[in-house]
Amino acid sequence: MPRLLIVHHTPSPGMQAMFEKVVAGATTDEIEGVEVVRRPALSATATDVLEADGYLLGTPANLGYISGALKHFFDTIYYPCLDSTGGRPYGCYVHGNEGVEGALRAIRSITTGLSWRPVAEPVTVLGQPDKDALEACWELGATVAAGLMP
Ligand SMILES: Cc1cc2nc3c(=O)[nH]c(=O)nc-3n(C[C@H](O)[C@H](O)[C@H](O)COP(=O)(O)O)c2cc1C
C-alpha cells in the first residue's frame, strides 16, 4: 500500500491544530488505499523516509529558518535517501509569527537537493491559525494523500 510520511515539529497548540487538520485531510474517507504514518521530526529516520512514497513536512519558522528539529531530520536523512527518493512528491506547512520566507526557502532548497517534487502549494500561517488556515491544512493533507492513491 502506498505510504505517506508526515514529518512534523509541533511545539504549540496552534501548530498541533494545524497538524491535526493535515492528518484529517490525509486520512479522510475519500482517500482509499494510502497508509499515513506520522513522525515527530526528532524521531523520524532514514528508514521511515525510504519506506514512504510521499512526504508532508510541518515546521515553525525559527530564527528565519526551519526548526532545528526539521533541520536535524534533513541532516540525518539527506545522504542515506539521496540515491533512491528522487522524484517522490511532497508538500509542506509552515507556521510563524513574523515571517516564514527563510523557512520556505530552506525547504525548497533542501527538497530540490533531494529532487523531491512539490505537489501542492506550501501552506503558510502567521499567528493563530483561523478557520481558513485550518481548512488549507486539511486540503494540503488531502491533496498529497490523493496523489498517492493506487
Ligand atoms: C527561538 C524562536 C525563533 C523564532 N523565529 C521566528 C521567525 O524567524 N519567524 C517567525 O515567523 N516566527 C518565529 N518564531 C515564532 C515561532 O514560529 C512560533 O513560536 C511557532 O510557529 C509556534 O507558534 P505559536 O506558539 O504562536 O503557536 C520564533 C520562535 C522562537 C521560540
From TrEMBL:
Residue ranges of every copy of the NADPH-dependent FMN reductase-like domain listed in the record: 38-124
Alphabetized GO MF terms: oxidoreductase activity
Family annotation (Gene3D superfamilies): 3.40.50.360
Protein name: Multimeric flavodoxin WrbA
InterPro entries xref list: Flavoprotein-like_sf, FMN_Rdtase-like_dom
SUPFAM superfamilies on file: Flavoproteins
Lineage: superkingdom: Bacteria
